[in-house]
Amino acid sequence: MPLQIGSLSLPSTIIQSPLAACSDLPFRLIAREKGLGFCYLEMVSAQSLTRENAKTRRMLNTTPEDKPLGAQLLGCDPDMMAEAARILEEMGFDLIDMNLGCPVKKVVGNGEGSALLKDPARAEKVFRAVRSAVRIPVTMKTRKGFKDPSGDEAVELAKRAEGAGLCAVTVHGRTQAQGYAGRSDWEAIGKVKRAVKIPVIGNGDVLTPEDARRLLEVSGCDGIMIGRGGLGNPWIYRNLDDVMNGRRESAYVPTVPERKETLLKHFALERSLLGDRQAALNMRRITVWYSQGLPHNKVMRVGVCSTTDCDEIVRLISEFFDQLPADAPPPSVPILLAE
Question: What is the pTM of this model?
Fold first, then answer.
């Protein structure tokens, strides 16, 4: 089922969220191969982007196959956010999202991320500045509130976003004060949905087709944003889409050889796009994603964390998966990261 966000028509209502140090180009290419229709790259700072920070520019690397693609901006200065948005549009991104949900203390202390829930007037200035700076669709992502669990703060921001010409809003059903604890409040997402006419995308605790169905029933949202559920499980996007649209009765479970092949291809992309050393370091977390919940994974993980020899990493991964039984558990969600 397609999702229309302004002038951008997305092939699916399932979207992958931006995940710091996770949703890099290799991750996105693997996800797209397995069924992902739309993704964001990692959140970038408007200040770093406008100052031409080399690391920030590297984070924006993409390929023609990595489309359609959104970029997410972090910042609270209207002029700087507008300048950064113009840069992203010139670089060819299809959509710009503004982060008003990051709960990290350093970010909040700068008045950015979820701090803007406490300053809706300033947030609206940012919305209007960015909207007027570019022609591509502009959206924003926020939480249900800063400390207030009612969802009223998210409603206020969503109304101001709609009034400023933004094309959609995404709501994570936790407050800033919660961080990633507790359960996502899907009722609060529904409260936002009922308050505006633009599409509302729900986020938080969707890990299975059953979760997705329930979020839609409770909130009435127009789309679903996946966070940590996509780590090590690139099959999740098509699974959610197929089951929700009646093409499958239950989620597809990849075979052990398919999981091995996918992880090795992910590693190969890391090597070709980022270089052997960085790829080897990245595999210290990526192998955790793909092996979470599988029996006897500790030896493989310890081995990968103890070397930067890429051939040795391939050997360790291959041996681990080759020894797994055919009925190994389906992919499970890593516990090291939340949405």
Answer: 0.94
Q: What is the pLDDT of residues 250-284, one digit of tens each?
A: 889 999 999 999 999 999 999 999 999 999 999 99
Count CA within 13 A, CB hemisphere, residue 274: 22
Q: Are residues 220 and 281 in the same domain?
A: no
List of residues 6+ apart from 6 with CB closer than 8 A: 95, 136, 137, 138, 167, 168
Domain range for residue 151?
3-244
Catalytic residue among 22, 39, 102, 167: 102
Q: Is the peptide bond before 2 cis (omega within 30 degrees of 0)?
A: no
**pLDDT tens-digit profile of 43-58?**
999 999 999 999 999 9
Concerning whether 76 is annotated as a catalytic residue, the answer is no
Query: Is residue 7 exposed (0-12), middle (13-18) or buried (19+ Cβ within 10 Å)?
Result: exposed
For residue 194, give the nearest of 216, 169, 221, 174 by alpha carbon. 221
